[in-house]
Write a structure and sequence with these properties.
Radius of gyration: 29 Å
GO molecular function, one term: starch binding
Strand content: 35-45%
Distance between the termini: 94 Å
Number of strands: 29
CATH class of the largest domain: Mainly Beta
Shape: flat
GO cellular component, one term: outer membrane
Protein name: SusF/SusE family outer membrane protein
InterPro entries: SusE
Helix content: under 10%
Number of helices: 3
Number of domains: 3
CATH architecture of the largest domain: Sandwich
Length: 401
């Protein structure tokens, strides 16, 4: 009898243990009454220019703050895309447990072409339900190369994305993209680098007429600049877009690095000596950075420097008079013009409204000019134009309208 009772007791205990295990397996999150909304912190560009030549480049790095779920747990995040902004059938672009995620040009391009139906063929246009071209206010067909893309970030409590897991969803981010054709125009997607920091004229203001540095037209991943820097000590970084902190370039363990490579902001560049003139060289291919002192004591300080040529007017009348540039109050060897409308044509720089001292070169957008050099080719558009008389270098920064 005792044996039978013992066996029955063991069976009951086993059944109780099995029920307990089952209850553990069915554990469900206790959702907080209110979940904090996920907040995206990166700034978006006005327009994203997408080119097949720049597929590997980072188009945007989404960053956000960790939302408060009211409980301690891991959080998994999805970057989602919606073709119409409703997110009824979102496409997950990427997932992470960090608070940032990058999307490159190729990913944006593929979404824009396969989901949004855009293309970079200059001969195709938007059409209505009848297949007729849609016209703009001027009566011209609207190219089928640009549109709005909708993104959001969704954070889920835990890493398994259980059905009952609470979510925190960001506001919708709208990226306006334009696909560049392959028959010219791809040059506008080239990377520019701008100075920022307390060693430079704009200080740590990322949208204060920040000077660009010169991109080598023979090697588009090498940049140089010679000019005045503050020291004792003073620091600076390089930005790819004025008005935005990402992407930014600096140092990591002594090597050149970008925020896109690191997933965080790099360290600053430091001026090794006191206030003075220095030459810097940035080589993205080899991840190197070099800074050397520069003796400008024997250099001429000009009273005026201007831009002249058919590009200023659209015809040869532009060769008859200079458009004077503004001399930097921080560095008298640096000259600029902002928001300058130029036409298809050619241009040169010259000093004191006279041909005795003039500079030119045969490369668009950036270059190393020389006395009596060739005319600079210019494509129609609106530009910020910079000229450095110490190194006879120039940069045309095209502004997108």
């Amino acid at each position: 009898m005792k044996n039978k009772f013992l066996i029955l007791t063991i069976i009951c205990l086993g059944l109780f243990g099995l029920k307990s295990c089952t209850d553990d397996d069915n554990f469900r999150f206790q959702t907080p009454a209110e979940v904090e909304q996920l907040t995206i912190t990166n700034s978006l560009l006005g327009e994203y220019l997408l080119s097949t030549q720049t597929f590997p480049n980072i188009a945007e790095r989404f960053t956000w703050e960790t939302p408060d779920f009211g409980v301690e747990s891991n959080i998994s995040y999805n970057l989602e895309y919606s073709v119409d902004g409703t997110f009824e059938n979102p496409i997950v672009v990427g997932s992470t447990t960090e608070t940032q995620l990058s999307i490159n040009v190729e990913q944006l391009w593929n979404l824009a072409t396969t989901e949004l139906g855009l293309d970079n063929d200059p001969e195709t246009f938007l059409v209505d339900d009848n297949g007729d071209p849609i016209l703009d206010e001027a009566g011209n067909p609207i190219p089928n190369d640009s549109g709005e893309m909708f993104f959001r970030v969704v954070g889920d409590l835990g890493t398994n994305e259980a059905d009952n897991s609470p979510s925190s969803i960001s506001d919708v981010q709208i990226l306006f993209v334009r696909l560049l054709s392959n028959d010219g125009g791809g040059e506008v997607a080239l990377r520019n680098l701008f100075l920022v920091g307390d060693a430079t004229a704009p200080g740590w203001d990322n949208n204060n007429n920040n000077p660009p540095i010169v991109r080598d037209p023979e090697n588009q991943n090498v940049y140089t600049f010679t000019g005045k820097f503050l020291g004792d000590p003073a620091a600076f970084k390089l930005l790819e877009q004025r008005g935005a902190w990402q992407p930014q370039w600096g140092l990591s363990e002594g090597a050149l690095a970008s925020s896109e490579d690191l997933g965080s902001d790099p360290d600053v560049f430091n001026i090794p000596g006191g206030e003075g003139y220095y030459s810097i060289t940035v080589d993205i291919d080899n991840a190197t950075f070099d800074i050397q002192s520069f003796d400008e004591s024997g250099s001429t300080t000009f009273a005026t420097i201007g831009i002249i040529g058919s590009a200023t007017t659209g015809d040869d009348s532009g060769w008859s008079a200079d458009m004077d540039m503004t001399q930097s109050t921080f560095d008298p060897h640096l000259w600029y013009m902002t928001g300058l409308e130029l036409f298809d044509g050619e241009a040169k720089f010259r000093a004191d409204d006279d041909w005795a001292v003039n500079w030119g070169a045969n490369t668009e957008l950036t270059g190393f000019a020389s006395q009596d050099g060739p005319n600079i080719p210019v494509a129609a558009g609106t530009y910020d134009v910079w000229f450095n008389d110490l190194t006879e270098t120039y940069v045309f920064v095209r502004l997108e309208e």
